[in-house]
Amino acid sequence: MQATQTIPTYQTHSHPLAAQISKLSHKEAAELARTELDQFIALVESLARDEWDRPTMCSKWNVRDILAHQAGAYAAGASFAEFRRQGMG
Asked: Please, what is the angle between helix 80-88 and helix 63-78, to 10°?
């Protein structure tokens, strides 16, 4: 019998329709992106050497693989030429 993975369920709340949510300004979006990147870098820098090879919920990827994938996404977002290069592969 194959084991099944339990995915956490979260209590749902009433949320406004997406169209009713104010759009972010470019400045607000940039500030949020910077905060997210700073937190991501802090997390990466906190990893111990043995944590890089730990498994993740993506059964074929370890922590190093996930971080490499994320780094590639950041590189693609930082340069149109890199975005195009990754999209052509």
From this structure: 120
- From first to last of its 89 residues, the chain has per-residue pLDDT tens of 455 555 555 555 666 677 788 889 999 999 998 999 899 899 999 999 999 999 999 999 999 999 999 988 888 888 888 878 878 76
User: Would you say how long the chain is, in residues?
Assistant: 89
User: Which ranges constitute the DSSP H helices of 1-89?
Assistant: 26-46, 63-78, 80-88
What's the predicted TM-score (pTM) here? 0.58
CA dist., res. 83 & res. 77, Å (int): 6
Question: How far from the centroid of its chain's Cα atoms is residue 54's Cα?
Answer: 17
Contact in structure between 62 and 53 (CB atoms under 8 Å): yes
CB 46 within 8 A of CB 38: no
